[in-house]
Every structure is written in C-alpha cells, then in structure tokens.
Design a protein that fits this description.
The protein is mostly helical. Helix content is about 55%, strand content about 10%. The protein is built from 14 helices and five strands. The protein binds tryptophan.
Length: about 325
Amino acid sequence: MKSIILTGDRPSGCLHLGHYVGSLQNRVLLQDDYEQYVMIADVQALTDNFEHPQKITQNVYEVAKDYLSVGIDPDKTTILIQSQIPQIAELAIYYLNLVSLARLERNPTVKTEITQKGYDESIPAGFFCYPVHQAADITIFGAQLVPVGEDQLPMIEQTNEIVRKFNRIYNTECLTECQAYLSKSSRLVGIDGKAKASKSLGNAIFLSDSKEEIKRKIFQMYTDPDHIKVSDPGKVEGNVVFAYLDAFCLDKEKVQDLKSHYQKGGLGDVTIKNILNETLQNLLEPISQKRQELSDDYVHDVLLAGSKKAYAKAQKTIEYVRDAIGINYFSR
Ligand code: TRP
C-alpha cells in the first residue's frame, strides 16, 4: 500500500513561482509513488477573509488551474475543496477539547501572522484556532507525509501532539502521526529582494502572468545598486536575478560563468535580465498553454470528483473517531 500525502494551499490568490519551487514541483514528483491529496483550503482562508468571501471563492478555480497546468494529474492526485468535506470541521471540534489557549498562543507562525494582520487587539477565534483545524485536515486523510515550507513546521508538531493525546485519552490507534517533508530548494525571494515572494506583498511572478508581465517584473528586479556601469564589478549575493537563475536555470555551469563575469565587471543587468527572461518564458510557456486549454467545466468535474473521493475517505475516519469517543449511537 502507498503512503498517504496531504498538502494544501489557501486560495487567497493565484499561485506563483515561490509555490512552484517550494511545493508544486514536489507534488508532481510525489504523485507517482504516493496516495496524494491536495486541498484547496478555503475554510482556512476564510479565517482571515471572512468579511469578503468572494476573494476566496473566486480563487478556488484559479488555484485548481495552477495545479493542473503544472502537471498535477487528477488521475494520480485527489484535488479537493476543504469546505466540501464537513467531517474535517467535525473532527476539529473534537480536537479543540484537547488543546489549551496557552498552547495555541505559543504557535510561532500564528504569532507572526497575528502581528502582520494587526490582530493584536482582537484575534478572531477561528483564526486563532486554525492550526487545530489544520490538524484535522491532515489526520482525516490519515496522512503520513506533509510536504510544506518551514513556516508550517509548528502545525505539524501541533498535529502530532493532538494525535498522541487523542489516541491516549480515547484508548485508540485510529489516528496517525505525520511527518513534514521539506522542499530541498530554499525559499524564493520576491522581485524586490526584500522578503519571500508573496501575493500579499505584490512581489511575485505568478504562474498565470502574461509574457509581458513576466518580462516587466524581471526588468523591475532588484540587482546590485552599486553596479552602475556595465564595466563595474557587481554583487551576486542578494541579487534577485541570480537568485532566480539559481532556482530556474538548469545549466548550472552557465550560471556559474555568468556570476564570475558579473563579479569581475563587464556584464550588464540588461543582459542577465534577458537571459532570465528567456529561462522563465521557456518554463512558463507550456504551463500557460496548458492553462488555456482547461475549460471551467473540466475543472468543475475534477474538483467534484476529487471532493467526492475525499469525502468518502473522511467519512471512514470520522466513523472511527466517533466510535473511539463513543458517540456512535445509531451505528452498530
Ligand atoms: N496553512 C497552509 C498554508 O498557509 C495551508 C494548509 C491548509 C495546509 N491545510 C493544510 C498545508 C494541510 C498542509 C496541510 O500554506
């Protein structure tokens, strides 16, 4: 039997190159050897977007198209919409009994987000508890492996604490502990060079960007402010163009030669940007082509079939869970 994988994304916008190197590429590779579930986490996205749900609902199809266009294959990977699996919410309710407020407060990722979102005054309880919900996402499918970025490690840790506590208290083995699977490539920096690429910071190249947008963003990239004349020696560290060449150019020797040349002087920003532009256009062209071929009807069918399959799997887990707690009054 194949091991089970679950990952997810909040559909608060389209996916970008940071997602591509951080998780999407991995999923395409892993789908051959694992039973893989990929969740469009709309319920989680609502925890900090509850006032404007359209921002989330509008992006569900966009994210699904991002998945399909990079090669996540619905015959191998179950793509599901979180809100369509109510068993997850039920499981989260049982889990909330097992977690203290103090423990929730200690989650470093949530702490950072609370500050970023200006929630210090009044934190929505749903948002505060989303790691518990995420524990339900993972365990309802019995996932053993969770491919995520480093910022999600606290969620995995909290999930396993809940699993151990649940199994101990209800004297069962119905829940499985999971492990994080960290991507080998490091985080992709934003085109401004300041922080990681992110949709909220507006510094990312999206998988769905047009050719012109890609080029425009490349030509905006932060390089080396002291590299003024072509003949000046330039810095490669902190230079976004080289960070992207490292991440996306398969010809490592060529990148190395460009770096040495740039450091010596005599290689202009326009030249390296043109090289990066060619690299990214070549990468994104087939993705964009594939995206255009995806009809909304097809995406609808993929999401419906995936959600149905996930629902059936979740139903099995929730029945075990109800048995363990003893609230299975009508089943025998
Ligand atoms: N919290 C994840 C993020 O912000 C998204 C997510 C929701 C997720 N549920 C998950 C990731 C379950 C892994 C497993 O990116």
